[in-house]
Each structure stands twice: as C-alpha cells, then as structure tokens.
Amino acid sequence: MAEHRLERLRELIKAEFGQILQRELKDPRIGFVSVTDVEVSNDYSHVKIFVSVFGSEEEKKQTMEGLESAKGFIRSELGQRIRLRHTPELHFIADESMERGSRIMALLNEMKKEKGSEN
Questions:
Q1: Are 78 and 13 in contact (CB under 8 A)?
Q2: Domain spans in the chain, listed from the N-terminal domain onward
Q3: The domain 2-118: what is its CATH number?
Q4: E strands within the chain?
Q5: What's the pLDDT tens digit per position in 62-108?
Q6: What residue spans of the chain are helical by DSSP H?
Q7: For all residues of the chain together, what is the average pLDDT?
Q8: What's the CA angle centered on 37, arms 54 and 51, to 5 degrees?
Q9: pLDDT of residue 103
Q10: What is the pTM of this model?
Q11: Confidence of residue 1 (pLDDT cuts 50, 70, 90)
C-alpha cells in the first residue's frame, strides 16, 4: 500500500513540477528543461528531481542556478498543489543520461557509415 502511494506521489510531483516549469517560472536563466525522474524518500521528507537540461555547458549551469534560486517558490507551489502534512525538501539533480544516449547513437551511426563505406 505504501509503495503504491509513493509511486502516485512521484508521478504527481513530476506532473506538477512540469506545469510549474512551463507556466509559473519566469527566471530567464532557466532554459529548456525536461524532468526525467523523481525519487521520494520513504518518509516523504526529501524529493530528488532529476532534470535534463539542453544547451551548452554554460546554459546548463545557468539553468541549474535558476532552479536552485527558485527552489523556495517551487516548494511552496508544490505544497499548495499536493496535500501533504509537510512539504518535502527539494533537490535538483542534473541527469546526463539523455545526452549520453544521443552521443552513443551518433557514434553507432558513424560506425555504421564507416562500415558501409569499407565494403
């Protein structure tokens, strides 16, 4: 039962955070962000939000700084939208998996082309 509640909470936080990113945050430092995963601690006191940021290294750094500075606002918005006894602490973590995946695909395509030109 608790696992089911934890999963529902993860999905709810992911959806609400996505809406806050799209509609509420006005910080120009925050670029194109995609939420890849959300982890909630067993006691609901901490939430890790994994985000993938597209752009240069400087744009990624600026976006993460913007998210950190908006953490209080985001937390209060989530607290209003999701009814919990205590609003959890938020932790934003940069997720590089999408970028790594596209680099691997590019390398595989390059190898495929090279192999095709050898024949």
A1: yes
A2: 2-118
A3: 3.30.300.20
A4: 32-40, 46-54, 89-94
A5: 999 999 999 999 999 999 999 888 899 999 999 887 777 777 888 88
A6: 2-19, 57-69, 71-81, 97-118
A7: 89
A8: 25
A9: 79
A10: 0.79
A11: low
d(CA 66, CA 48): 16
Residues 50/95, Cβ–Cβ less than 8 Å: yes
Question: Which are the contacts of 69, defined by CB distance < 8 A and separation ≥ 6?
Answer: 27, 29
The answer to whether the Cα torsion of 75, 78, 80, 83 is positive or negative is negative
What's the rounded Cα separation, in Å, for the pair 104 and 5? 36
Tokens of 44: 């609901």
CA 3 – CA 15 distance, rounded (Å): 18
Report the C-alpha gap between 66 and 77 in whole angstroms. Answer: 16
- Amino acid (one-letter) located at 64: M
Taking residues 26-45, report their average pLDDT: 91
Q: Which two structure tokens, joined as six digits, stand for 108?
A: 């595989």
Is the distance from CB of 78 to CB of 24 less than 8 angstroms? no
Share of the chain above pLDDT 70, in %: 97
